[in-house]
Predict the 3D structure of the following.
Amino acid sequence: FSYSLINIFGLGLGLATCLLLVTWIRHELSYDEFHTKADRIYRLSLEYASGGQVGRTSVSPSALLPALFTIPETETGVRVFNQSAWHPYIVKYEDKLFQENKFFVADSTFFDVFSFELIKGNPRTALTEPYGVVLTERMAKKYFGNEDPIGNILQVNTSQNYTITGVSENPPTNSLIQFDFIALLSSIRLGQREPSWWSANYQTFVVLQQGGDLKNLIRKTDAIVQKAVASEITGENDYVRYNFMPLTDIYLRSDFENEPEIVSDIKYIYIFSTIAILIVIIACINYINRATGRAADRAKEVGIRKVVGALLKQLF
């Protein structure tokens, strides 16, 4: 009994641990793959050199997206900004008052670029009116319980009223963008300013046209940027350019220290994949060793069975 218990428990524990690690690894590798256009979505990050110093950041200025819309290879795009991550918003409904740090603002194309499903409201119109806001199912339950939130008013930062225009499903756990509220970019002061090339606050995402050439998009973007900032680039080795990173690569392969969202590192996938394989190998070796030892202990019994006429099938 003890032999069977140890063997089954050891092998079972090894396989269970391996399966848990494989489940976690698959989850990590699946980040943002649920978006319908995931294979064509890229985030643009700013890289610049000035006076011998090179800087890189995951955000970009407000003028970039309007410039991208003039390029035929661009299908659509969106700017996303979470100002509440640094300065939590005070959100009030009747006698309920909370601090929120996931109050995002974005362009009206947000639901065209990303595949966050709306439970209530129209994704085409939910972010077209100033001071309209879409909240997640989780937030709808938090503020309104079982009441229909559409059309209700939320007071934000004690001064501005937002009308609820939609309710979205909660972002999946494998989504880089984890919002609770999403409002129109023009609702905040930053979004009301004229587009600028020298104030980088937004994550800018662009969708490549179906069948479009990414190299052409990059080349045309570089040409627009060089023309727009030419008067400011005075040093011999000074430059400004934007790098295109696939949306599905950001979570595991971004090397920016100032990512607006929490990211991981591909090296952890390699480390835990190796651990999972080693655990299975160790469990199998342990099982084989014990089985071999058990068989040696029973050599006398096997010999007696053979003498009295046991067949190979019976011995097996």
